[in-house]
Each structure stands twice: as C-alpha cells, then as structure tokens.
Design goal:
This protein is α/β, with parallel strands linked by helices. It is built from twelve helices and 19 strands. The N terminus is likely disordered. It binds ligand 9MR.
C-alpha cells in the first residue's frame, strides 16, 4: 500500500507564515517552568504526546526520551484495521496492547488511532463493498472499542474521510460508498462500545481555513445539531516550511462548535522556520482553551515516516533540537487553562426500547432481571447494545430473549452466547458476567443484518 504524501505540494503552496496572537494568557513565572514537554504541557492541563511503534520500545535511547518527555502516546500503526483484524472477525491485539501497556506504565493518556481509515484496510476488507462491508466496519469499530473500553483517552474514530482540493466533499473510498452515513454510524457504534472515550474525527491539510477544513467543520456542526456523538477534532499538522496564518483561528472556530481540538500528528519540515513553526503551533494550542494537547508523529528524526526531512524534535542520536527548545519555551510561557476532563456527555442517540424498570419481586430467592436495548441501525444492518439489570436480589445467571423482525439475523454476539439467529433469539451470560449484585448491571451486544429488534426483551434470572 502506498504511503500518502499528504498533499505536500498543497501544504507548501498554502498560506504564508502568519503571526498568531494569543487571546488571553496566564503567564507562568520562570520559577515554575517545567523541564520536560509533558510536565510543561500539564501546567495548563494539557498533554504532550508522541506516536510510537511497538518495534522501538526496546531501543534504550528511544525509551529514555519517551518516558522522560511525554505524557501521552499514540500507536503509530498498531491499532489500525489491518493490524487489529487481519482476517475477518479474528482480532489480534498483541501490538496494540503493547502500546497501551507502555502508556499505562507511564501514567500517560493513550490516543487510539484509528478505527476506520480508507488506508491500511486489511486485504479482506479492501475487496468488500455495500452492506457486507458496512457490517464488517461496524463490527470492527464495536469489537476494537470494546477491547480497549475504559483505557483510551480519545479515539480517532474516522481518519481522513475528506477529499483534498477545493470541493470540501467526502473522499471516495469503499467506506464512503457504503453510504454517506458511515461516519455517524461509526461514531454511534464507538460511543456504545466505550462511553468514556472522547471520539474524534482526524484529518490533514485542515490546518487553516480552507475548503477541506470547512467541509469537516460543516460535518461537525451538523453532528452537534443532530446529537451524533462527537467530542473532538484532530488536526494532523504535517507541515512544510510555512504554516497557515489562520492556524489558531481555525482551531478556535472548531472549538466554538463545542468540541475539543487536538494537534494529533505534528511534524514540520526542517528548514529555516522549523523551530518558529513548532512554536507557533504550540502557542496556538495554548491560546485555545479547548485545545487539550499536542502529539508529535515520532520522537527522533530517524523515527519519522518523512524520511530525509528531519521533521521532529530530536535528532537521529536523540539530542534535543532547536525546535525542542522552542516548544518547551512556548509551553512554559503560559496559556489558557483547559477545562477539566469530563466524560463525554452526548446522550444516547436512540432511546432504549425498554426503560429500566423496577423488576418483579415475585422471585426473591433467585433474583429477577430486566433488559433494555439501544440500537445503532443503518440501511441493511445494526449493532444492538443490551443492558441487563438485576432486581432487588442478586442474580446468578441470566438469559435475555429478543424477537427479531422477519429478515433479521444475528451475525455475531459479544459478552453473551446466542441460541438461534432468527425469530426469537436467546442470549445467555458468559462466565464472567452472569453474577450480578442486587441492582447491578452488565452489558452485552450483538450485530445483525436487516432491521433491528423493536419488541421489548425479556430477562430470566437463574
Ligand atoms: O507513520 C505511519 C507509517 O508508519 C505508515 O506506513 C503509514 C501508512 O499509511 O501511516 C503513517 O501514519 C499516518 C497516520 O496513520 C495517518 N495520518 C498520516 C500518517 C503519515 O502517513
């Protein structure tokens, strides 16, 4: 698969270098200045992260810089579709988990990258289309987000879905051809799977106000208006030898829509302006209160995907470059403080078919249970998330039964075992989620073709 060059020409031809003026800044006195990127960013509630490959975790210099300087990590390739689902519905989290555990061991925020992207699709998905592909996409989002549930600070749910150039339109891909609603379906599935992760849209060449960034802006505005769950927008910021003069105001216009903004893949061509451009990006983020952090796309120049461009903060030997000092000074010069991190608050996008009810009390010996379903449907398929709630007594084992409409069939289930796939289908607890305390809850899910269930599920305890 070819590596995208990311419209380098467009980047170079983009706007002239501009001076970005911070709106309101709280000055941090030099006595308080921190001496690492992560600690300096943390002074204003932000993170400073790096994309890392699992293959370099054993490199002593790499590992020393990583653990000293950064308080966030992004897997460079390890959580992408081709890495996590090499054959359909067979998941491999070995290297993704290595990055996750590295982040956890550092007390760092882990950014998940990326659930759906037209690049680095596994071969089996590249050859799919239509509703079969849509089902595979939603299954992928659900399974991967479920595996990492509770561990990921922010997911790039969808990466690079807009076209370059002046159209402001979606990019053509087999994902896009499953229907224009694929992005919102992916965000809904991700929210259902991991309600506490911030859900981001991520793209490049969106670093100033232009047709592409305005296309993304309009999508985010529409999602916010319709309650589609989106929490953040990632600006990759693979920059050349200049930076758009409206870099900061572009971040601000997105933040004003009610989403966080993050610099997600920063690297800057080495040239006369490298340190200045790094400084300008850092100050722009600090000036926008909802800009929650910056990630550089690699640590040393030799780690970069931009071979020969020396675009990072450390040289091949791991020495700090002038660009490093410029970023550190910018972080220590103060900025707006980010609001404290709160879990995403977007309400569920569909109403449970059965509101949690007070369960019957006629079976106090074994307990009783109730169940409710939340559906994320698209044309031809759906993902159902089912919440099981114990009544006023503990439950040891449960079975939820659901009637599916004609033409609907269960294709996979997680955290429960199904009996049957059509008509009335029963879901039995698995070993680790059968026991519920009085009033306790657990969740399972399934994916199906056709229309999702609308009838009230029943729950039997015991
Ligand atoms: O840095 C990544 C490189 O190792 C991969 O070969 C490449 C595959 O397309 O992806 C690179 O990371 C990309 C990121 O996932 C999305 N935005 C652009 C990045 C640079 O191509």
């Amino acid at each position: 698969m070819s590596i995208p060059r990311h419209g380098r020409a467009a980047l170079l031809a983009a706007a002239a270098v501009g001076v970005v003026v911070a709106a309101s800044v709280a000055v941090i006195g030099t006595a308080d200045a921190a001496s690492t990127l992560g600690a300096s960013a943390a002074q204003t509630g932000r993170y400073f992260g790096a994309a890392i490959p699992a293959s370099k975790l054993g490199d002593a210099t790499f590992s020393r810089i990583l653990t000293t300087e950064f308080n966030s990590v992004t897997p460079e390739n390890e959580m992408k579709w081709d890495a996590t689902e090499p054959s359909q519905n067979n998941f491999n989290y070995t290297n993704g988990d290595r990055i996750l555990n590295q982040g956890i061991s550092m007390g760092a925020k882990v950014r998940g990258h990326a659930l759906l992207w037209y690049q680095q699709e596994p071969g089996w998905a590249q050859s799919m289309s239509g509703s079969a592909l849509r089902s595979a996409m939603m299954n992928h989002v659900t399974k991967v987000a479920t595996h990492y549930k509770g561990k990921i600070y922010a997911w790039d749910v969808v990466n690079e879905a807009f076209a370059d150039g002046g159209s402001g339109a979606r990019r053509d891909s087999n994902l896009q051809r499953t229907g224009n609603d694929w992005i919102e379906a992916a965000f809904k599935a991700a929210r259902a799977a991991d309600p506490n992760a911030k859900l981001c849209y991520n793209d490049y060449n969106t670093d100033g106000v232009n047709a592409k960034s305005t296309g993304v802006y309009n999508m985010v505005k529409d999602f916010k208006a319709r309650g589609v769950p989106i929490d953040c927008v990632g600006f990759q910021s693979h920059l050349g030898t200049s930076i758009p003069g409206d870099y900061q105001s572009n971040l601000k216009r997105f933040a004003d829509l009610g989403v966080d903004v993050q610099i997600t893949e920063l690297d800057v061509a080495q040239g006369g302006n490298q340190a200045n451009i790094y400084s300008t990006v850092t100050k722009a983020c600090l000036a926008v209160s909802r800009c929650t952090g910056i990630t550089v796309w690699g640590i040393r120049d030799s780690d970069s995907w931009r071979t020969g461009e020396n675009p990072l903060l450390f040289d091949n030997s791991g020495n700090k470059k002038a660009a490093y000092t410029a970023v550190l000074n910018a972080l220590n010069s103060g900025g707006t403080t980010t609001p404290p991190t709160t879990p995403p608050t977007t309400p569920p996008t569909s109403t449970p078919t059965t509101p949690p009810t007070t369960p019957p009390t006629d079976n106090p010996g074994t307990g009783a249970c109730s169940a409710s379903v939340t559906l994320n449907s698209w044309n031809g398929g759906y993902v159902a998330s089912v919440k099981v709630t114990a009544g006023s007594a503990p439950v040891n084992g449960w079975t939820v039964s659901l009637g599916l409409p004609s033409g609907s069939a269960v294709t996979s289930a997680w955290s429960a075992t199904n009996s049957g796939t059509t008509g009335t289908v029963s879901f039995r607890n698995v070993s680790y989620n059968g026991s519920l305390a009085a009033g306790g809850t657990t969740e399972f899910g399934f994916q199906g073709t056709g229309a999702g269930p609308t009838a009230t599920p029943t729950c039997a305890a015991g």
